[in-house]
Amino acid sequence: MDLPLEALSIFKEEGISSVSRDFSLQLLYNRLHWAKSETAFKSNVETSKGKTTKANKKKNVQMAPLNRDLSSNCLPVDTRNLKYIVDPYNEGREAEASSPSRKIQKILEKCYDLFTVQWEGVIGNMCAPSQAEWEQLLTNCSAFLFYGMERFMSHVSLNWLVAMNITKCRLVILLDLVRSQKSYQRIANCDFHKSCQRIALERPTETAILLSLTGVGSVIATQWYTNLEENAERLETLFENLLSFGKTTGQTVHVLQKSRSHRKRDSIKMEADSHGSPGEKVEEQTVCTSSDPPASHPSFFNCVLYGLPNIILM
């Protein structure tokens, strides 16, 4: 499960719009069983949004409803009930423009009138969330975003998480696995008091399994350590496709993987154009096209989807 399975050539064929992973037939059955029970919710989405719009008008709150045509095979998740925790200890502040705290604030301001007016969460440059706040946000949301440093599970108690029932949370987005000097000092001190088995449970695949066992429908997560700039790009692409374009979770992750490989290919072509003679340019471009290394580089497939690929934010 740690390999970039999405990079296989069979998944690059035309007609494939999304690829998702799962851990067992039992887990898949449970997710699909929830999906059947959610079909009744579809007819109530528009009614609920209509009531909320009227209430918001009375409160002078401007919010654009998401009037989307819901396909029969898609499962709706209420956009208004998204919760987030961003860089709890403010360990990415040195990156300035790419720091999680500043990045999420820009997105919240940019999309405020459309989507985020009712979102709730904690940003680390303001205060560190307590364990009670973690529990409150995770148990009372339809979607949850963690955007920060190091392993997600290094921020929460394992015993607390496995005892939770968070079936209301249908989508979890984990943009973690970034390291700074301050975050390394913190996690080194924490890991010193943990066993090897305990640390192993904090790895990305194990984290997705634990979240699935607590009832989460889909998990979008990074597989390996990355940097703040790449996670900032992922956040923009995810929100743009999930919110603005109305794509499903599977389509969004597929777009994210393809867009990163295309950007890398374009940058290589631009670099080839700026160096060497015309003959050398043609030769370099031919080599890049034939071997096509950017499209198969593992880093382009760092962000993967576990669970249902047909969840759509409404």
UniProtKB/TrEMBL annotation:
Stretches the record annotates as Disordered: 260-282
Biased composition (Basic and acidic residues): 267-282
InterPro entries: CFAP46 (IPR039586)
A biological process from GO: axoneme assembly
Domain of life of the native organism: Eukaryota
Protein name listed in UniProt: Cilia and flagella associated protein 46
Organism: Taeniopygia guttata
Gene that encodes the chain: CFAP46
